[in-house]
Amino acid sequence: MTTNLLNNNLPHLPESANTTLLKDAFYQHVQATVQLTKVALALEWTVFTRFTVGVVVATFLSIVYLMFTLRHTRRPLVIWEKLNKPIIKLFRPRLFAFLLGGMNPYTTSIDMTITTLSKGFCTGFMRVIYNCHFSLHATALATFAESVGELALLSSLKDDISDTDLVSLKIDFKKKARGLIAASTEFCLPEQGDQDSENSPSKLKMNVVLKDRTLETVAVAHLIWHIAHHSSHYHKSEQ
Q1: Do the Cβ atoms of 226 and 150 come closer than 8 Å?
Q2: What is this structure's pTM?
């Protein structure tokens, strides 16, 4: 009987009030979840932003350092390999073209990009430079072929080489050059025994093949280079 009296004295909430309390509790739970998610995202974004800024700053400083230290380097293969670093590699063609302009200012007159450079091997492409006949200018082709050939030559020479001069450039044109032009050459430095004299300058021959976007040969450049060795190197050898 006492239990019944207590139960009768407790307030009885209508079903609508219970539903309202459940809705309020659910709404508060959702708000707390959303707030927690915002805090987590803000923290993750802060970490990601700091990491990204750190990578960008480190990359920029690395590029500045490499450009400063390599600005007077006369060995293109060393420059190419130095630029083969994470993230910096993405900008390597443009950075290499800028440094190449310091070694060979004529390369800045054509829009050329080096894609591959290894010992005795070089490939690149050049964008359109039309003349009045709506074909690629012959001088641009000659400059492009000379630049690719010189890179292949310099990448295969040793430290005992002081001077390299182009003494002959002959181009056999196969067809009109239009659109994107690719050039490639592969060069093997002959053995000392194949040259006339170890102490005398040597003449080296190479061919550079130029093709269009359909892989048809546009022209073949025949280059003859005159190279000379360091005189001090041979003075030491004679001693």
Answers
A1: no
A2: 0.68
Q: For residue 11, what are its two tokens? A: 């307030």
Structural contact between residues 148 and 122, judged by C-beta atoms closer than 8 angstroms: yes
CB 77 within 8 A of CB 99: no
CA atoms of 158 and 148, how far apart (whole Å): 18
pLDDT along the chain (239 residues), means of 10: 48 60 75 80 77 83 84 84 86 89 83 90 82 69 91 80 81 85 86 48 85 91 83 39
* 55-73 as b/e: b if 16+ CB within 10 A: eeeebeeebeebeeebeee
Q: Is 216 exposed, middle or buried (0-12, 13-18, 19+ CB in 10 A)?
A: exposed
Domains belonging to the chain, first-starting first, are 109-238 (3.10.129.10)
Question: What gap in Å lies between CA 191 and CA 197, rounded to an integer?
Answer: 11
* Contact between residue 216 and residue 182 where contact means Cβ atoms under 8 Å apart: no
Structure tokens belonging to residue 27: 């709404």
Length of the chain counted residue by residue: 239
Per-residue three-class SS string for 165-228 = EEEEEEEEECCCCCCCEEEEEECCCCCHHHCCCCCCCEEEEEEEEEECCCCCEEEEEEEEEEEE
